[in-house]
Structure formats: C-alpha cells, structure tokens
Amino acid sequence: MDLYYHPISPPCWSVLLLGRELDLSFNLQQISFAPDCPLRETFVKLNPQHQVPTLADGEFGLGESRAILRYLLTAHSGSDDHPLYPKDPKARAVIESRLDFDLGMLYRRAYDYFSPQWNSKSVATECDVRRHSLSQHSHECSRLNQPKLYILQKYMLTL
C-alpha cells in the first residue's frame, strides 16, 4: 500500500500509528506541495482535494484520515471484531463518536477564536470571548479520555 503523507501532518501520523499497530507496511510517498513535485500527478488522481494522508491500496485510492483509519481496521485488521474497532454496535458507535469529535467541537471553536483576525473585527474583545470557547473544548477532551474506552481514542487524540 502506498501512503502519500507529509511528516508534519497529525492526521498522517494517526494513519502511521494504526499501521504500526496492525503490522501493516506502507510504501511511504512524502508529498511536497510545490507545483513541480514529481508525485503530484499520481497523487492528484488519487485525491483531487490534494490532501494528505491519501492511501492507495492497489487500484483503490482513499483520502481523509478518518476514512483511511476505518478502512484499514475493516479491511486489514484480520478480524471483523478487532479490539480497536469492535463489532458491537454500541462500542463501535463510541469509537465513531471519538473519531469525529473534533469536527463538531474543536474546529468550530478554533475558527471562532481565529475568525476576528481573518474578518478584521475588534481582535481584543473577540479573542477573549473565543479563548473561553477553546478552554471549554480542552475540558471536554479530557473528560472523554476515560480508561474504559478503547485504545483508538489515544490515536485519534493526536488529530
């Protein structure tokens, strides 16, 4: 399997960590986003969004780290009831929730925090309000890291 990645990307690291956990071997293709990157044409065909990570498993190409994680666990874990991605619908739902937690919480709050600078609003006032929102996210993340939850959370908290 080819993994198109960049070493500073946390979503890429989540895929690399899961690959290590599942004893998978990736043919690593480090992507440069310069227009003259030799891998660019192949990479763009696999992932028109030009985002890393992108996985190529034979003729099958897939972008988005969460989708790649789910695919690897389903297709390459050696079991349909792997401890990292159990068959039980409730246990799997908890994992799905943790995989996507930052989409609804962190990204929105980070956007709210930084948007005053982007939109030229009163930075001091807006940043104080948004800083509180980000601190709430930190509290919610720590609340979710309970020992009884599955190991996959530890990987996903790197996103």
UniProtKB/TrEMBL annotation:
<protein>
    <recommendedName>
        <fullName>glutathione transferase</fullName>
        <ecNumber>2.5.1.18</ecNumber>
    </recommendedName>
</protein>
<dbReference type="InterPro" id="IPR036249">
    <property type="entry name" value="Thioredoxin-like_sf"/>
</dbReference>
<comment type="subunit">
    <text>Homodimer.</text>
</comment>
<dbReference type="GO" id="GO:0006749">
    <property type="term" value="P:glutathione metabolic process"/>
</dbReference>
<dbReference type="InterPro" id="IPR004045">
    <property type="entry name" value="Glutathione_S-Trfase_N"/>
</dbReference>
<dbReference type="GO" id="GO:0004364">
    <property type="term" value="F:glutathione transferase activity"/>
</dbReference>
<feature type="domain" description="GST N-terminal">
    <location>
        <begin position="1"/>
        <end position="80"/>
    </location>
</feature>
<dbReference type="Pfam" id="PF13417">
    <property type="entry name" value="GST_N_3"/>
</dbReference>
<dbReference type="InterPro" id="IPR036282">
    <property type="entry name" value="Glutathione-S-Trfase_C_sf"/>
</dbReference>
<comment type="similarity">
    <text>Belongs to the GST superfamily. Theta family.</text>
</comment>
<dbReference type="InterPro" id="IPR040079">
    <property type="entry name" value="Glutathione_S-Trfase"/>
</dbReference>
<keyword id="KW-0808">Transferase</keyword>
